[in-house]
Amino acid sequence: MDLFTAMRTFVEVAQAGSMNAAALKLNVSGALVGQRIAGLEDHLQAKLLNRTTRQQKLTDFGESYLEQCKDILELVNFSEGKASDQTRQPQGRLRIAAPMSFGTSALMPALKDFTEIAPEVEIELTLSDKNEDLIADGFDAAFRIGTLEDSDLMYVQLAPYKMLVCASDTYLEQHGKPQKPSDLDHLRAVLFSKTGRKPWRFKNGTDEISWSPRANTSVNSGQAVRVAAKTGMGIAMLPETLVKGDIAEGKLVQVLSNWNLPEQPMALIYHSDRYRPQRLTTFIDFVRSVFKHHHT
């Protein structure tokens, strides 16, 4: 049995949905396709497909083996340098980690365009405000906000993560709109609990001011802080990407717009393997174009 041919046949059967459909695509008989799958199952000593007269379904082992086949066949094509246009189409599962607010407000809307560029790639996105370990947790790539630690991982520098101070119009009408950081002293803040009560550092030209927020409420979700600010619970420091829509619609009002808050560097990190699956290369290029860093 030609193992690579059997693996390619299995991938086609899984993607086509039936042996007959795969046979048409491969231009071989349905009987030959069945023989290849049976030979592969015999070789593996495991069942890949559960088949009835009406349908077929991958077994649990078949699902995991399918991803391995895609990776192996892609690597073979890569090393031989003879990939056809069909096999160059990125495919397989891509496991990505991203911070909650950025992932929800910026990454998810952008992923629609990526799925059109790479329709055969299955995205598995994990949103978490802890830094996931790429190796231990099995991720292909992860977005990082803040200064990167020294490691052997590769990275792409993205546009900095910009923060704004905002509040609802109702809250500002009741308590006054601050014109300078010291005007914040009589206002309450809603805080993102990960950053806690760290001072908010403002800069305007050569002037730098640190302000320690007073808060009755802190919460471990940027989205929840956003909702609290919109309902008039107080002022909030939130990512621009999370609130720019609310500001445009008048649901939130940016304050102290002439004072800048420190921007945090943002990057996409990924493994430094010599061989990189086409799906990951395509994703890296996509992220670089969408969230590109403008050098000054």
Describe this structure in words.
With 296 residues, the protein is α/β, with parallel strands linked by helices. It has 3 domains: 3-88, Arc Repressor Mutant, subunit A (Orthogonal Bundle), CATH 1.10.10; 92-161 and 265-290, D-Maltodextrin-Binding Protein, domain 2 (3-Layer(aba) Sandwich), CATH 3.40.190.10; 163-262, Periplasmic binding protein-like II (D-Maltodextrin-Binding Protein, domain 2). It has 11 helices and 14 strands. It has helices spanning 3-16, 19-26, 30-44, 60-80, 85-88, 100-117, 134-137, 169-175, 222-230, 240-248, 278-290; strands at residues 49-51, 56-58, 92-98, 121-127, 141-145, 154-161, 163-167, 189-192, 200-204, 207-211, 215-219, 236-239, 253-255, 264-270. The strands form 5 sheets. The protein has a 5-stranded mixed β-sheet. Strands 12-7-13 form a 3-stranded antiparallel β-sheet. It has a two-stranded antiparallel ribbon with strand order 1-2. The longest helix is centred in the first third of the chain and has 21 residues, at 60-80. The N and C termini lie far apart (59 Å).
Mean pLDDT: 85
State the CATH superfamily name of the largest domain: Periplasmic binding protein-like II
Number of domains: 3
Which class of secondary structure composition applies to the elements?
alpha/beta
Q: What is the global morphology?
A: elongated
Treating each run of at least 4 consecutive H or I residues as one helix, how many helices?
Answer: 11
The percent of residues in helical segments reads 40-55%
Radius of gyration over C-alpha positions, nearest whole angstrom: 26 Å
- Strand count, sense and closure of the main sheet? 5 strands, mixed
How much β-strand is present in the residues? 15-25%
CATH fold field value of the largest domain: D-Maltodextrin-Binding Protein, domain 2
- What is the multimeric organization of the chains shown? single chain
CATH class of the largest domain: Alpha Beta
Q: Determine the N-to-C terminus distance.
A: 59 Å
- Biggest sheet, spatial arrangement of strands: 4-3-5-14-6
Number of strand segments: 14
Task: Indicate the low-confidence ranges by residue numbers.
Answer: 82-86
What is the CATH-assigned architecture of the largest domain? Answer: 3-Layer(aba) Sandwich
Output the helix-strand order: HHHEEHHEHEHEEEHEEEEHEHEEH
